[in-house]
Amino acid sequence: MSELLNQKSSIQGKVPSGYLNSIFGLRGDWLQDAEDTKNLAFDGYFISLYHLHLTASPLVLHDRVKKSVPPHWDPAALSRFIRTYGTHIIVGMAIGGQDLICIRQNYSSTIPPSELRGYLEDLGDVMFSDGKSPSLLQRK
């Protein structure tokens, strides 16, 4: 699940991002979260209007930036570097939105995965319909 959402955000790897933690209500200690979580599931739509990505690869730092990196551990110099240049670079962005239903199942839950999936699909059908369908509560 984390790899799928990371790919949607153009992030490599399988370590959960803050985005995954937020939508599923995870704490961020990914090993503990994985141990406590039986299943994660979502249904919905990812709507991308456009994407913008830097095409220069590999990215090359200007010499002045390279020369500004402190040559040894110096907290004050490191702080100045971070204030000047920051800690991250943006290499791409996407404009759009999403409409998701997210389910996190703990191990204490006795609902089988097939039933959970069916419930998620039914809920998605109602939530993402034209509004003319009967509510999930009326259908049960």
Helix and strand sequence? HHHEHHEHH
Number of domains: 1
**What is the general shape?**
elongated
Average pLDDT over all residues: 83
Quaternary arrangement of the chains shown?
Answer: single chain
Give start-end ranges of low-pLDDT stretches.
none
So how many helices? 7
Which percent range describes the beta-strand content?
15-25%
Q: Can you tag this structure with a few keywords?
A:
MACPF; single chain; 41% helix; 140 residues; CAD1/NSL1-like; MACPF domain-containing protein
Overview of the molecule:
InterPro entries: CAD1/NSL1-like, MACPF. This is MACPF domain-containing protein. One of its GO terms (biological process) is plant-type hypersensitive response. It holds the Pfam family MACPF. One of its GO terms (cellular component) is plasma membrane. The protein is of the alpha+beta class. It has one domain. Helix content is 41%, strand content 23%. The protein contains seven helices and two strands, in the order H-H-H-E-H-H-E-H-H. The chain has a two-stranded antiparallel ribbon with strand order 1-2. The model has no long low-confidence stretch (mean pLDDT 83).
Short description:
This protein is an alpha+beta fold. About 40% of the residues lie in helices and about 25% in strands.
Write the layout of secondary structure elements.
Elements: H1 2-8, H2 18-24, H3 30-36, E1 37-53, H4 63-68, H5 75-85, E2 92-106, H6 113-127, H7 136-139
Antiparallel strand pairs: 1-2
